[in-house]
Each structure stands twice: as structure tokens, then as C-alpha cells.
């Protein structure tokens, strides 16, 4: 498979984001799952052990409902333009 055969990538701009539960994260970039080719957002927690995490890009970018109000799962604090 070459790059022309890959499905489009949903890219999450690098930068700092706040999760709706309050934690802050630094998005490193967008990667692909090696088997499904699904776009995944790679990010680092900015608290605790500062571990690396990966989440489907579509889920990272989605709007969810909290207490009857729509809000983003992750809100950019200082995302970098692409």
C-alpha cells in the first residue's frame, strides 16, 4: 500500500486541550491504526505520570452532551494552526 491508497486523515491540530472533565493534554499529532488505518489522535496528559494516550480522532473531535448541554469532548486551549 502506498500513500495514495490511504483514506483521508482526520487531523487534530497539535497543541494544548482541556477535557470536559478538566484534565489538560498536549496533542502531539495524528497517527493511523496499523491494522484498520483509522485516524487516531496521539496526546500526552499534562498531569500525573504524563502518559501517552491514543483515541480515535473522530471521538477526540466530537461534541457530547453533558447535563443536557452539548459541548466538545476536548476544547482547544492553544491548538496550533495546521
Helix-strand pattern, N to C? Answer: EEEEHEEE
β-strand percent reads over 45%
Instruction: Tell me the structural class.
Output: mainly beta
Could you give the count of β-strands?
Answer: 7
Unreliable runs:
none
**The top level CATH class name of the domain at 9-46:** Mainly Beta
Largest β sheet strand count, sense and barrel closure: 5 strands, antiparallel
The CATH superfamily of the domain at 9-46 is known as DUF1653-like domain
Overall average pLDDT: 89
The number of helical segments is: 1
Main sheet: strand order: 4-3-2-1-7
Query: Separation of termini?
Result: 26 Å
CATH architecture name of the domain at 9-46:
Roll
Helix-residue proportion = under 10%
Domain DUF1653: 15-75
Organism: Acidovorax cavernicola
Pfam family, one: DUF1653
Protein name: DUF1653 domain-containing protein
